[in-house]
């Protein structure tokens, strides 16, 4: 058979063709598993080739059973198909809208339309109730409140129809955008805190970097979207982000500001160093945030009633009598509130809280009275009052009293400053005080230290003149570098000494060094002098390599041994380089 296949393959094929199907059928009945194992490796590439060559026929073959296949897959894993399609749903909806927008509108209208209709129906019903009862005590009260707030009655009605709520409060680190703490109502869907923190920080950075004018200090304070708002209140290292819905009352803005002030007072240091660990933040901060979520409930609505003709006339007559009194009472309440807010603002400023200041409104003016120790605080008090009442005339009657300093307090402060200065390395000073004049004596290692000492004493209240006689005494350098006989190269053990000298020069930029080279008396004086000069140059080059400016280093050679080394001492002590500091005003500048 093999020989025949080799001789005439086409003849063999023609002979087997009529019975090949019967052979396969018999093999299937005989050993079905073996036939499957034999054919299985061929099926995937065969199907792939068929899909590539005849996609339409494959689609027609699979289509009748596609729905049944999906149903069976749902029985096996009901989430598999939804997970597979989820990533493409958004693209599919966008494409469908682009192809047939009206069909999408018709499909979504029953859901979205009914939701919007219900919301608008509730809002309009509330508005209609308020309009129907406009001629009522509540209606008259609303008209008065609308006038007081400077808005139309319709706007006030709409505000009342959509009440103010707080959805979330976030405390965010300003520079990193990390979430420090947050608070959200228990009965609402939670917002993604970390995502909100990162988004808001990115928006703040974009506005501050790209929109704010160069040199102008400003902060974005709110982000509006629809009927909601994100209120931002910024402090030094953090800011509060409060997500609200409805019209935000001014009193709640002040509550946010006061809460942020309390947070900074409680955890200012922890917030400054915050690196992402919420356990480092005091629990008191979470309590403050939770308090911002709580909103005092609106007072229960009074029972409404309609007025008949007689009651209308009676109310009108009473209105003629009561309205002037009510207006006068309202004016008094507004003035009293401004006075109280001004006094509270004074009390919240540490520089002003210790002084007795008064704020009274008289003849249409906000009059400020009291005594302060200088004109700067007097001006600051007036600026604070203008922020509280920007539309009010300010009459500043505060008296700036220049209080004479207490000599005992001045002497005590001079003593304290002197003690503090002596704690600084390289400063040793003594001071005396007489009749407003301070005399300072002592020694410092840097020229700039002497200038700073004068400025520090001048800033003490009551000091009129400062006489500074301190002397500049450079730091002594005891380090020496020794060389072998006849050698000019540095030893490996001397590298640390070079680094110590480098550190000293970096810490004292006003110092220059005179590098003195020495040699032992062995040999001729000329040879020893050249050898000493080479050693000094070697050390100078090593310091230049470490980044020290060449102009600060002077290499010199001495014909005699260094001070303290005589003929009785070992010769190796004379083969050295020593350092002599020189104060240079040019380097200091």
UniProtKB/TrEMBL annotation:
Residues 334-402, 406-474 form the BON domain. InterPro entries: Bact_OuterMem_StrucFunc (IPR050330), BON_dom (IPR007055), OMP_bac (IPR006664), OmpA-like (IPR006665), OmpA-like_sf (IPR036737). It is found in: Cell outer membrane. GO terms for cellular component: cell outer membrane. It comes from the Bacteria. Residues 470-589 form the OmpA-like domain. Keywords: Cell outer membrane, Membrane, Transmembrane, Transmembrane helix. Its main location: membrane. The chain crosses the membrane at residues 310-330. This is Flagellar motor protein MotB.
């Amino acid at each position: 058979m093999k020989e025949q296949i080799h001789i005439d393959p086409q003849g063999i094929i023609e002979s087997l063709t009529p019975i090949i199907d019967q052979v396969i059928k018999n093999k299937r009945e005989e050993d079905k598993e073996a036939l499957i194992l034999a054919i299985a490796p061929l099926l995937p590439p065969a199907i792939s080739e068929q899909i590539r060559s005849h996609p339409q026929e494959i689609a027609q073959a699979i289509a009748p059973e596609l729905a049944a296949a999906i149903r069976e897959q749902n029985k096996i894993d009901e989430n598999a198909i939804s997970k597979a399609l989820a990533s493409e749903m958004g693209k599919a909806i966008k494409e469908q809208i682009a192809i047939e927008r009206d069909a999408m509108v018709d499909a979504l209208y029953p859901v979205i339309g009914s939701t919007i209709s219900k919301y608008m129906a509730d809002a309009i019903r509330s508005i209609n109730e308020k309009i129907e009862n406009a001629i009522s005590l509540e209606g008259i009260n609303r008209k008065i409140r609308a006038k007081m707030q400077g808005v139309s009655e319709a706007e006030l009605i709409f505000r009342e129809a959509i009440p103010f709520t707080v959805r979330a409060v976030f405390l965010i680190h300003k520079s990193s955008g990390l979430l420090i703490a947050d608070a959200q109502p228990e009965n609402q869907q939670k917002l993604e805190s970390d995502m909100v923190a990162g988004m808001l920080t990115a928006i703040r950075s974009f506005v501050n970097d790209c929109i704010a004018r160069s040199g102008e200090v400003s902060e974005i304070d709110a982000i509006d979207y629809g009927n909601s708002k994100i209120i931002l209140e910024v402090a030094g290292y953090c800011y509060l982000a409060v997500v609200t819905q409805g019209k935000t009352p001014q009193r709640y803005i002040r509550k946010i500001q006061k809460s942020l002030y309390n947070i900074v007072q409680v955890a200012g240091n922890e917030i400054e160093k915050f690196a992402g660990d919420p356990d480092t933040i005091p629990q008191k901060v979470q309590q403050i945030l939770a308090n911002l979520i709580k909103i005092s409930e609106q007072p229960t609505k009074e029972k409404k009633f309609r007025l008949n003709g007689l009651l209308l006339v009676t109310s009108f007559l009473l209105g003629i009598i009561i309205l002037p009194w009510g207006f006068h009472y309202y004016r008094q309440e507004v003035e009293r509130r401004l006075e109280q807010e001004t006094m509270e603002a004074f009390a919240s400023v540490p520089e002003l809280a210790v002084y007795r200041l008064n704020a009274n409104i008289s003849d249409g003016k906000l009059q400020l009275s009291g005594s302060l120790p200088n004109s700067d605080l007097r001006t600051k008090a007036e600026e604070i009052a203008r922020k509280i009442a920007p539309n009010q005339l300010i009459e500043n009657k505060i008296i700036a009293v220049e209080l004479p300093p207490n000599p005992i307090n001045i002497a005590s402060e001079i003593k304290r400053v002197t003690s503090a200065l002596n704690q600084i390395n390289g400063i040793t000073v003594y001071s005396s005080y007489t009749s407003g004049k301070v005399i300072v004596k002592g020694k410092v290692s840097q020229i700039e230290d002497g200038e700073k000492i004068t400025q520090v004493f001048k800033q003490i209240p009551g000091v009129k003149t400062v006489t500074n006689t301190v002397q500049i005494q450079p730091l002594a350098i005891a380090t020496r570098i020794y060389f072998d006989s006849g050698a000019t190269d540095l030893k490996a053990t001397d590298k640390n000494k070079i680094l110590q000298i480098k550190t000293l020069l970096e810490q004292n930029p006003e110092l220059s060094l005179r590098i003195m080279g020495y040699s032992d008396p062995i040999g001729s004086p000329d040879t020893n002098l050249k050898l000493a000069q080479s050693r000094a140059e070697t050390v100078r080059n090593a310091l230049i390599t470490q980044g020290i400016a060449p102009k600060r280093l002077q290499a010199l050679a001495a014909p005699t041994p260094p001070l303290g080394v005589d003929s009785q001492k070992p010769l190796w002590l004379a083969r050295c380089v020593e350092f002599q500091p020189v104060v240079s005003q040019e380097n200091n500048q």
